[in-house]
Amino acid sequence: QLLKTDGSKNLGWASDSGTWVKLSQTTNGTAVNDITFDSLDTSTYRAFKFIGGMQPETDAVQLRFRFRVGGSSLTTSKYDYGWMQTYPDNSHTAISANDQDHVWMFGDGGNQSREGYTFEMTIFPHVDGHASQIGNLVKWEGFRVDDGHAFRATNGAAFYDVDDTYVNGFILYPSSGRFDFHNHTLYGIKA
C-alpha cells in the first residue's frame, strides 16, 4: 500500500498498481557462461530494468550484450553503440561503433576480489504498432574495476538497427570465459 493525498491535503492509503514488477532475482550466483533472459512479456511491460553485477572468470575481458528473439541471439552486424568512460585524472575515453555483431558495454573487467562490472541497464524493445525504429534500444550506466583494480565509471547506449524486429530477450556475456559470480535483479516496467 501507498500513502497518498486526495488533492485536498487529506492522507489515505491506496493500493500500489505495481508499475515496476520484479521478474527475476539472483543472489550469490556462481559460475555461468552467460546471463540470459528469454520470453520477456513485451505486451505487459514496455521496458525492462536490469540492476546487478558480475565478475568474470578470465581477467581483463569485455562485457558484451545481444538482443534475443524466440530464444536465439541476434548476431547480424546491426548493433550501433557508444559509451564514455572516466578516469581518475578527470579525463575520459569515448568508444563508438556501427554495424557490429554485439554491443561492447564495458572495457576490461578484472577477476579478483571487488573487480568486475556493476551497473543498471534499461531495455526498451520495439513493439507492434510503433514506428519501425522506436525501440530495440538499451542504455546503461555503472562502473567496472579492471585487472589493476582501477575504477572506471561508464555510461552508454545502443540499438539494433533493423526495422520491425520484435525482441523479447537479451544476453550478457564476457568476451572470453564465463562469469564466476553474479548478482542481479530484473524488473518489468509497465506502460
Features:
15 strands; 60% strand; mainly beta; eight-stranded antiparallel β-sheet; 191 residues
Topology:
Blueprint: E1 2-5, E2 11-14, E3 20-29, E4 35-37, E5 45-56, E6 61-69, E7 72-73, E8 79-86, E9 92-100, E10 103-109, E11 116-124, E12 137-145, E13 151-160, E14 169-174, E15 179-190
Antiparallel strand pairs: 1-2, 3-15, 4-14, 5-11, 5-15, 6-7, 6-10, 6-14, 8-9, 8-13, 11-12, 12-13
Provide an overview of this structure.
This protein has no helices and 15 strands. With 191 residues, the chain is an all-beta fold. An eight-stranded antiparallel beta sheet has the order 3-15-5-11-12-13-8-9, with no helix packed on it. Strands 4, 6, 7, 10 and 14 form a five-stranded antiparallel beta sheet that branches. The radius of gyration is 18 Å and the shape is globular.
